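Structure (tokenized):
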């Protein structure tokens, strides 16, 4: 019984002392509370641990930092980064320097107005039949030059001279005849080139009687050389088939641009052959072309060699002004 009273009184005493200690701490906060010792008979199991400050988790601070960063970034980047520019300008930083625009290219010069050309009336008017012309060949060689070419080919023609029957007609000719055999025609050749006093050729004729041939029936090369010279000297390249027909003694006729070529045999005498090469305007357009390009209308052109070697006259040398001599 006495032990119970002692224990109860001890509890009351301890409670009074604990209450007095709290009041003392409230009156004197700076005073450090004195350490109280537990009774000797108290066991460690009943001892109270001191209360520490509560700790905030690290993840809380991390989430708070991320949230604040998002809020600040949203504010600065909103409104076309107007707030960010204001902050940079406040601290003296030019975060977004103005773009340097390139200078516009220089305007191209104004093009010159197109040139105006006036066409002649004959270029736009419809052609008239009475004034139409046509292509017409011309001789690329003169009469004296043709006679000289025949002489170089072995045909000894005469010189280019006026004909005995007409003073306005000039000609050169060659004639050869062999002895006539028994029951055979005489082998003869007659060549004549005619033209005018200016040397323009009008026609060339060849008459062959009983020409010699080889074992293949082709014309003798010595006689064929006459026709080769007459066809090649004018430089008309579209009559190449005519020479092959003459070589085989076949009749041939060709016309083109005023030129007429014929090689035929006589009906009554098959061994007689006539060759004619003439250049004459037969139609109205050809006659107009011949008259327009006649030598009587235009001045003669200079020779190419003379025009190439002709030197230009030297201009008189001019003295420079007195102020530019120094």
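Design, position by position:
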């Amino acid at each position: 019984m006495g032990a119970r009273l002692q224990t109860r009184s001890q509890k009351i005493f301890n409670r009074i002392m604990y209450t007095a200690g709290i009041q003392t701490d409230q009156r004197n906060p700076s005073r450090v509370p004195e350490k109280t010792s537990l009774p000797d008979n108290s066991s460690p199991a009943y001892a109270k641990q001191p209360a520490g400050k509560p700790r905030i988790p690290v993840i809380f601070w991390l989430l708070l930092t991320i949230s604040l960063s998002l809020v600040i970034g949203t504010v600065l980047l909103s409104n076309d980064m107007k707030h960010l520019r204001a902050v940079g300008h406040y601290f003296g930083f030019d975060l977004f320097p103005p773009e340097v625009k390139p200078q516009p290219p220089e305007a191209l010069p104004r093009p010159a107005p197109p040139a105006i050309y006036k066409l002649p009336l004959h270029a736009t008017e419809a052609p008239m039949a009475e004034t139409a012309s046509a292509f017409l060949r011309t001789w690329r060689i003169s009469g004296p030059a043709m006679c000289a070419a025949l002489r170089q080919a072995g045909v000894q023609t005469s010189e280019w001279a006026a004909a005995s029957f007409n003073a306005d007609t000039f000609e050169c000719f060659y004639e050869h005849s062999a002895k006539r055999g028994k029951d055979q025609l005489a082998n003869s050749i007659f060549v004549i080139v005619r033209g005018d006093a200016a040397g323009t050729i009008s026609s060339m004729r060849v008459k062959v009687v009983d020409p010699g041939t080889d074992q293949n029936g082709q014309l003798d090369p010595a006689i064929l050389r006459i026709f080769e010279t007459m066809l090649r000297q004018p430089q008309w390249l579209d009559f190449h088939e005519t020479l092959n027909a003459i070589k085989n003694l076949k009749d041939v006729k060709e016309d083109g641009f005023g030129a007429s070529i014929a090689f035929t045999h006589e009906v009554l005498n098959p061994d007689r052959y006539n060759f004619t090469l003439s250049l004459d305007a037969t139609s109205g357009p050809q006659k107009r072309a011949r008259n327009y390009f006649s030598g009587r209308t235009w001045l003669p052109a200079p020779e190419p060699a003379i025009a190439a070697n002709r030197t230009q006259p030297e201009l008189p040398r001019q003295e420079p002004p007195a102020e530019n001599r120094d």
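Reviewer-requested clarification: The helical segments are 2-27, 58-90, 121-124, 143-152, 221-232, 240-247, 284-292, 304-309. Residues 58-90 form the longest helix (33 residues).
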